[in-house]
User: Fold this.
Amino acid sequence: MRTLGMVAGLVVVFAIQAMAQDKKAPAGESAGNKPAPELAKLDNMIGTWKCVLKMHSPAGQGGDTELKATVVIKKALDGHWLTGTYVTAKSKNSPAMQENFTWGYNPVEKKYVELAVNSMGGMLQGTADGWEGSRMVWNEEGVMMGKAAKVRTTLTTKSDKDFGLANELETEPGKFVPMADTVCKK
Assistant:
């Protein structure tokens, strides 16, 4: 009985997908199978970037730390997503770190989406409304250093050859403090 229910459910799902196909799309390809056109607005981010990361320490805790990093961003899953790695080298004040992230576009919510996980056990998920001139602001929530965290990341581009990231941590409701700044060049 359970198997029959699962088969019936799959038949319904495939029937709905077939009915939803765009009549103008070529045979075998529906409009829903194409990457969201909004994702193309991030194409300038694709490539390998050399970066300098400046991590800000709270007052009285040793000052800022500067690290070299490499960011690699590429298209994934038939162009529906961008995936990336952000790798920092070890320094005398900081271990080597890696973050893997995925960017996409949610056409239902009409927002850019991201999921990021890192080698220190942290994770963030967030959304952005899109580009406002040369800036895109991500509002993220997740876990950092084993604690709940809210982060605001502002992505800024000056050209196709450079970008910057400004990360701010919410320390109390509505109050964000600078956490890190990154400058990257192709």
